[in-house]
Design brief:
The chain is α/β, with parallel strands linked by helices. It has 13 helices and eleven strands. Strands 5, 6, 7, 8, 9, 10 and 11 form a seven-stranded mixed beta sheet that branches. Strands 2-1-3-4 form a four-stranded parallel beta sheet, sandwiched between helices. Strand 5 and strand 6 form a beta hairpin.
Length: about 350
């Protein structure tokens, strides 16, 4: 998703619907007007399927869909302890399930909330003895963060997702088939600098040859890819007569090293007669310590292509000056962490 969705999750009686209705009524809560907000989603499908053993063969699919959702979207989980739940059940009742089923589901929701609470795009709110206004006030700083997400925040979020949701594969923790998406007004690369410093420091600490090679050589990899992109764009426009804003052939394979397999760029006119640039990059794999460098490389290469120095030799005059938005998609076949224990230690030391 380019624009994050917000899903309000939680067991029966925790106050999801009341929370959402109150949020929509608040004139000073812009999240309800800018971001889609829904009542329950993939997490509920997963937990109810698990509790009632409805479709055991679909459990891994629900988990993968949950991972896909959390990688670009926000989830609020409202929780209650059993005492608060029992009190609300006596006051209101439930027309679908008895109290034992609700208690059973409550254990599942609370256990999953505990496992997900350290992921930035998940906000867990303990709703016991809190009014709806209090739960919204607690959520507002998180809402503001979700409204200002960009690709750099999505990398940080993925880092925590791998820590808490990744599967062990040999000596690594891994999430497969990850998709990160973002719509941005510019390709400013400074947003990645603190992250590159952070993981660069970690790479020096572990003295891992693969990290050193990737970090030291990533500029060379992407410089070679940029040269290939310039050649292909010139060929497509001049030799085959492709137009900048209709071509589907600005597609580049990478044989220069690094983790990126292919990169595609499409320019399209929008309703304002300006240009939107769609960028799709496919990575065979990326260690989380290298991913900021890889994505920085894509931003830098595409940014260079549309700057006047290069653009004047590729596109018609003034074409790239009409670009007003970049829609970016990064597909990663394997997003993983090597040395997860050392990275956790490094992270704790930095935070302390």
């Amino acid at each position: 998703m380019y624009i994050p969705q917000i899903i309000v999750e939680g067991n029966d009686l925790v106050g999801k619907t009341s929370f959402q209705k109150a949020m929509f009524r608040m004139p000073d809560c812009p999240v309800s007007k800018r971001l889609f907000t829904g009542d329950r989603g993939i997490l509920t499908h997963y937990l109810y399927n698990q509790y009632f053993s409805r479709y055991p063969e679909l459990e891994s699919c629900y988990i993968n869909d949950l991972i896909d959702h959390i990688s670009s979207n926000g989830t609020i989980i409202l929780t209650l302890n059993n005492a608060s739940l029992s009190k609300r059940f006596k006051e209101r009742g439930d027309d679908l399930y008895d109290i034992d089923t609700i208690f059973g589901m409550n254990s599942l929701y609370n256990a999953n909330a505990e496992g997900l609470k350290n992921i930035p795009f998940v906000k867990v709110i303990e709703a016991d003895d809190k009014s709806i206004a209090q739960t919204i006030a607690e959520a507002e700083p998180w809402f503001n963060m979700m409204m200002n997400t960009d690709m750099s925040t999505k990398i940080w979020n993925l880092y925590r997702m791998i820590q808490h949701m990744g599967k062990g594969v040999g000596n690594t923790k891994e999430i497969t088939n990850v998709r990160l998406q973002s719509a941005e007004n510019n390709l400013e690369t400074t947003k990645f600098e603190s992250m590159m410093d952070y993981f660069g420091g970690f790479a020096k600490m572990v003295e891992h040859g693969e990290y050193t090679m990737a970090i030291e050589n990533h500029a060379l990899f992407f410089a070679a890819l940029k040269s290939k992109m310039i050649y292909i764009i010139q060929k497509e426009i001049k030799m085959y007569g492709q137009k900048e804003d209709t071509s589907r052939r600005f597609h580049f394979t990478n044989d220069s090293g690094g983790c990126i397999n292919t990169l595609g760029i499409n320019f399209r006119k929008n309703a304002n007669n300006n240009i939107e640039c769609f960028v799709t990059a496919n990575f065979r794999s990326s260690d989380i310590a290298i991913l900021p460098f890889d994505i920085f490389g894509v931003y830098a290469v595409v940014s260079d292509l549309i700057k006047p120095k290069i653009a004047k030799n590729l596109f018609k005059p003034g074409f790239t000056s009409k670009i007003e938005k970049f829609c970016l998609t990064f597909n990663i076949e394997s997003a993983h962490i090597n040395f997860e224990d050392k990275l956790r230690e490094y992270d704790n030391n930095i935070n302390n």
